[in-house]
């Protein structure tokens, strides 16, 4: 599951902690595996929300990937800066982001941008803004097939909305988008059944649209847990994101996917306040705290019981406290890598067990320029 000890630094005393270490070699292997699973780059549209980093975007571009998915205007701008040809903003723009999205299209005409819509009021606002600017906007209808977070259920209301999209002179209809992040059964066969069942509602809706003469050019579907299933579907673009860096949550839940751990936290023992207690410098500000414990998987150490985390501190119980001195470095894999990356200005690049440079997490904030 882990490239053998790539993260163990020869000179850890020179490293400021906490630090998020990344392995370019492991990332390249993950990109190659994504392409291998999909059969080609044709139907790959990887999400960049996990890494938000130009260097990883360029590694994918060098592998022939040209279509991307993102969650923010900043991520979309970063993709355009790095000459990605096709970018889907997979968050329905609302409020000021409608104007920002059109400004992005004007500023970066070399990139084809598209985004999502799931409600008539937003379709009208986008259409009206596009008409005012004398522009055309590419839209996907966002379908809710069970996650109940965003999207519109594939029913008559969705049919009317899609028909309204096709009727607007300012809208180029791209097709359907569906994210099924709720499908996470750890049993591979059951997860496949769940995915196929949920996706059937999307296909039934697509067929109903086409029966009425409404074209559905493409479908964008899924994230990392359902990537193994959607990547085999004809005419469906798949959008894995966590697969680029991987993490302990997905690694332990879906071991059959064979992606490599490409990001590891380096943290230090900050204090030994009591027998059998260690405190690390891995607080909320450096590690995503939205999940319960365990929030990391410690490497080469199975005696740590994670019991507390605050802004700057991470407290563990262990019967091996005497083996650690204050200042000792400890390595761990985040349980959830995506929000953890967003806490760092830079990723520390490791090759041959040395930090050889850093990569800016360039899209970690709401805006770059636009």
From TrEMBL:
It comes from the Bacteria. Keywords: Lyase. Transmembrane segments: none annotated. The lineage of its organism: Bacteria, Pseudomonadati, Bacteroidota, Flavobacteriia, Flavobacteriales. This is D-TA family PLP-dependent enzyme. Residues 262-351 form the D-serine dehydratase-like domain. PANTHER family: D-SERINE DEHYDRATASE, ZGC:162816-RELATED. Belongs to the DSD1 family. InterPro entries: Ala_racemase_N (IPR001608), D-amino_acid_metab_enzyme (IPR051466), D-ser_dehydrat-like_dom (IPR026956), D-ser_dehydrat-like_sf (IPR042208), PLP-binding_barrel (IPR029066). It comes from Euzebyella saccharophila.
